[in-house]
C-alpha cells in the first residue's frame, strides 16, 4: 500500500516523542528529519544502478536496523550516515547531528534506548518507500514541510525564522508569474532565494513552473542561507521534493553573496522569491555601504543602519534580470516609513517595477507577530505597468494555537483576485502611479487605498431614547433581502414612516422558523446545494474517476477547486470560497491520501483491506523483549480506500437492519434496568445490597451472591420433616411411625419398586420440596425484585450475544465482499458514497451557518432597542428601591 500522509505524520511525530525532554525542538528537528531523509533515499535508491544517489552496503537504513540495540549504536549510526554522505558528496551539506551525543541524547543505556527507539519508529511498514515510487515524492516532501512548520511552532520566537509558512509560499509561487513561462525557450530559467531558510519558498515556486514537452524541468533553483544547518535542511528539502539538482550555498547574502558572474557582479536571475529577516539590525555587518562593490544602492539612498528591509529589497532588484520577476515578504513599514526609506520607495516606484502589494494578517510568521506584506515586482512589463494592484487580505485567517494561519479559501481568493485583477470593495483595488504620487506622495500604506467595509452597526441615540428599529439596521441585512425580498415585510413593521423606524412584526421565538420556511430562501438553498453542486459534481467525476500514474494530484485538486469557485461565483447564499474551503479541507484530511493511493496502485486498491492485529511478546535480534503483531488474532479491519461502513450500507442493508433492531432492544432493556434502579434510589431501596459503590448499576456478581443468600433463607415444613425422616432412615420402625404421624409426606414418592423406602428417593423429595419452598416474608419483596432484575439482565445478555454473533457474520460477509468488487463498483463507492457524500454534507453545513448568522443578526437588531433608556432607568430605580427595602428589613439604617 502507498504511504499515506496521515500515517506518515503520526509516525514522525512519534519519533519526536522519543527525543522530547532532552533535546531542544530547534535541534531534534535535525535528528528526525535527517533520519527521514536517510530512510527515504535508502529505500528508494538502494540496489539501483545509475541512480541519483548511491546507497552502498554499510551505508543504508538496513545497516541502522542491524545496529539498533547494540551498546555502540550511536557511534555506528554516525559512521553509517557519514559513509552515505561521503559516497554522495553530501558531507557538510546536511544538518550536522551526532547520534552519539551524550549531552543531548543521554549516556549509556539512555542513549542506546533513544537512538534504537528512533530507528524502530522508522522501521514501521507504513513508511516503506520501496513500494512507493509512483506517488511518494509529493507526500514525503509535504510531510517534511509539515514537520518543519511544527518544529518552528515549538522552537519559539527566536528560532522559528528558518520556516516560511507554506500557505504564504504557495501564494507567492502563484503570483510571480512563473507558471506562465514559455516552455519553448531552450535555456533553463533561473529561480533564486537569497534568504532561503529551509527552502520552502523556492520549492513552492519551482512547483508552479511548467515542464518541457519532454517532461524535463524548465527551472534551475539556487538558494543562499546564512546558517549551515538550515542550509542543510533546505538541501534535504530539495531532494525529498524530487529537486535533487537544487543548489544551496551557505554565507551571509548581503556581505558575501555566493552567486556572482565573471565580472564579480551579482548573478542575475529570472525569478526571485524571498522572506528575509524582518527589520534586520545587523544587515550592514561586513559591508562598506558607500562603496558597495555590487552597486546595489546606486540610484537610491543607503538604507538605515539599523533596519535592513530595503537593503534586502535592493539586493533583490539588483539580482533580477531586466525581464525578471520577484515576490518579496517584508514588514508593512516598508510601505509607509519616511526619511531615507521614503526616498528609496519613491525611486523604486518611479521605475514602475512594483505591480502589486498583498497585505497579510498579523501573527502569521514564526519569530515575529508583526503583520507583513507581499510585494510583487515585475521588471519585464514595467513600461506597460500603469499602477499597483492592492489586496487587503489582513482579515482572512484562522487561529492555530497562538499563531494565525491562512485558510485554503484565503489563499485561493488572493490568487484569483490578483491574477485576474478583480476589484472587490473593501478587499482589492488597482491604483495608478499618478494617484499614488499626486494624492499620497508615494505612500503605499494599504488602508489609504482600501477602506474596510464596516459591518458593525452604529448605535442610534433616537431609538435608544424612543424605541424602535432604525432602517439603517435593517438595511445592513441587504444580503438576506436579495435572497428573500418579501421576508423583510414578514419580519419587520414600519411604525414611523417619517423617521423610518420599524418594530419586529413577530415574536422573537418565531424568527428562525419564518426564515427557514421562506420560499425564496428554500428555492435558493435548493439551487445551491442541489443544482450547482450537481453541475460541479459532473466536472469532478470526470477528473476523479480517470486517475492514472501520470496524473499530477496538486494540479487535479486545483482544477476542480477553481471550477467549484466558478460554479458558485454568482450564488446568493453560499460564497464560492467557502465551498472551496470545504473541498480543500477534505483534500488535506483524506481525499489527497486516496488519490495518491489510486495513482500508485490503481482503483483496484479499493479491494484492499487493512487489519489491526492483537500483539504478542517476542524477542528481537538482540534478545530484547518486544511486542509484535499477532496475525492470528484480528482486532478489527477496514478498507484501505473504501470504509467498511460504505460497504455495509451498500450491500448489507438487511443485516444492518437486524443489528439495528437488536440494538434497539438492547437500548430498551438497558433503559428499563436504569429506570428500575432509579425507582429504588432511596435509603430503603430493594437493591441496596447489590448496587455498586456509585449506586448507578448492579454488578452480576453482587446480584448472584445476594440471590444465593436469599434462597438459602427459604422455608418449608416439608423440607424439615423430610430431613428428619432421612436422619432415621436406618430404623425401619421409626420410619413407619414418623410417616404415620406426618401423613403430608405421602405426597412424595419415597419407595422403591420393591416397596421399600429408598434413601435416594427421600433425598430427591427433599430437593423437590426445597424448590417449592418460599423466601421468608421479610425477604420476599427484595427477592422478587432481584429476580425481575435478573430476568431482564439475562434477556439483555441474550440480545448482546446475538448481536456479537451477527457482527461476526457481517464481518465475514464484508471481508469476502472487498476482493470481489469490480472497478466500476469501486469508482461508484468512492465517488458517490464516500467523497461526494462528505463534501455535500460539509457544504450543507456551510449553508446552515449562513442561515444561522442571518437569524442571529435579526435577533441582534430586534433586541438592541428593545427597551428605551427611560424604561431601563425606571427598571433600575425599581431594583434600587427593592434592594433598599430589603436592607432596611435587615436592620440597615440609611
> Which word captures the global form?
extended
Can you give the mean pLDDT? 88
What structural class should be given to the helix and strand makeup? alpha/beta
User: Nearest-angstrom radius of gyration?
Assistant: 39 Å
Based on the coordinates given, report the CATH architecture of the domain at 1-155: Up-down Bundle
Q: What does this molecule look like?
A:
By secondary structure, this protein is α/β, with parallel strands linked by helices. Among the domains are: 1-155, N6 adenine-specific DNA methyltransferase, N-terminal domain (Ferritin), CATH 1.20.1260.30; 656-710 and 777-818; 716-771, no CATH class. It is built from 32 helices and 16 strands. Helix 8 packs parallel to helix 14 (408-419).
What does this entry show, briefly?
This protein is an alpha/beta fold.
Please describe the topology of this protein.
Elements: H1 5-19, H2 25-45, H3 61-67, H4 73-87, H5 102-105, H6 109-122, H7 136-155, H8 166-175, E1 189-193, H9 200-208, E2 219-225, H10 228-240, E3 247-250, E4 269-274, H11 309-319, E5 320-331, H12 333-336, H13 340-350, E6 354-359, E7 372-378, E8 387-392, E9 398-400, E10 403-405, H14 408-419, E11 428-432, H15 433-438, H16 461-466, E12 469-470, H17 471-475, H18 478-483, H19 487-491, E13 492-496, E14 501-504, H20 511-516, H21 519-544, H22 553-567, H23 576-601, E15 609-619, E16 625-639, H24 644-651, H25 653-679, H26 700-711, H27 717-727, H28 732-741, H29 759-771, H30 777-817, H31 823-864, H32 869-889
Parallel strand pairs: 1-2, 1-4, 2-3, 4-5, 6-8
Antiparallel strand pairs: 5-7, 6-7, 8-11, 9-10, 12-14, 13-14, 15-16
Helix pairs in contact: 1-2, 1-6, 1-7, 2-7, 2-10, 3-4, 7-10, 8-9, 8-14, 14-23, 21-22, 21-31, 22-23, 23-31, 25-30, 26-30, 27-29
